[in-house]
């Protein structure tokens, strides 16, 4: 089974196929043929749970669903959910192009939950915070279904306001001095982007250092200082994540997966996977 990739045009009433918002229970019912199996998206997704309990698995990490749970997913992340109690809340999608209209001048990647693959796609809101965010989302949903002048601009401004509020809540427990943008933030963002593009073909840090116009040693120093990992760690983590996705969801043999990920020898891929994940590809496949 290949992992389905959902696109905005598969959902009704999109804003020029760039924005969508719905009551969660309605969304889960009307799109049940799309959303009740493991899938990924070509868009950004946010969902607030105001009711319900269960588990939300995102890229093989399990998160608890309960009132106040807010999840924010980037394009390409795989996820599925299992509910113990009926869920309720609000879900919205948008393309990157929708947010990058000229009305908004700041960098979309400044929002911490979208800034790095290393940042958790989740925050837990208390009751007051949940009520505040839910109220903002209800107003956004009402605007989406209206025919007011400057509708798209108002949706964009409201979405931006919600993201700012969520970012403040996401970072509220961090020392204020750490909230300032670090000099190397752009370099690390560019590194993640390069790894995302080239990890199947390029597995050595020197390639990424050359692309970023720095030395391998300097790049590794920056990554280690800011993330507590090496450049090789970041590359390996992306390879292993893609391997897990393919092992569980793709109709490929383990040898074919190794080849797809740029390994000419399955035994080397198997050793690499076990060293980085603690289990062999076959053991991982059997587990799921």
From TrEMBL:
Pfam families: AraC_binding, HTH_18. PROSITE patterns: HTH_ARAC_FAMILY_2. Residues 189-287 form the HTH araC/xylS-type domain. Transmembrane segments: none annotated. SUPFAM superfamilies: Homeodomain-like, Regulatory protein AraC. Keywords: DNA-binding, Transcription, Transcription regulation. It comes from the Bacteria. This is Helix-turn-helix domain-containing protein.
């Amino acid at each position: 089974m290949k992992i389905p990739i959902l696109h905005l045009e598969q959902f009704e009433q999109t804003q020029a196929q760039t924005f969508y918002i719905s009551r969660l229970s309605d969304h889960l019912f009307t799109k049940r043929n799309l959303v009740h199996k493991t899938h990924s998206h070509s868009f950004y997704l946010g969902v607030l749970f105001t009711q319900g309990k269960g588990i939300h698995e995102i890229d093989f990490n399990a998160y608890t669903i309960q009132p106040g749970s807010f999840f924010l997913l980037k394009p390409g992340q795989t996820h599925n959910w299992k509910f113990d109690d009926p869920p309720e809340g609000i879900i919205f999608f948008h393309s990157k192009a929708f947010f990058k209209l000229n009305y908004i001048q700041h960098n979309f990647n400044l929002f911490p939950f979208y800034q790095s693959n290393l940042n958790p796609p989740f925050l837990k809101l208390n009751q007051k915070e949940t009520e505040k965010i839910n109220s903002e989302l209800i107003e956004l949903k009402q605007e989406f279904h209206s025919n007011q002048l400057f509708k798209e601009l108002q949706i964009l401004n409201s979405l931006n306001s919600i993201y700012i509020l969520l970012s403040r809540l996401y970072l509220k427990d961090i020392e204020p001095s750490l909230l300032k943008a670090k000099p190397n933030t752009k370099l690390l963002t560019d590194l993640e982007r390069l790894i995302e593009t080239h990890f199947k073909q390029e597995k050595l840090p020197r390639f990424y250092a050359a692309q970023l116009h720095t030395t391998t040693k300097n790049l590794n120093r920056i990554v280690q200082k800011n993330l507590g990992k090496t450049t090789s760690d970041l590359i390996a983590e992306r390879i292993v994540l893609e391997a897990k996705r393919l092992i569980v969801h793709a109709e490929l043999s383990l040898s074919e997966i190794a080849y797809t990920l740029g390994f000419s020898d399955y035994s080397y891929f198997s050793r690499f996977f076990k060293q980085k994940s603690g289990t062999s590809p076959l053991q991982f496949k059997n587990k799921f």
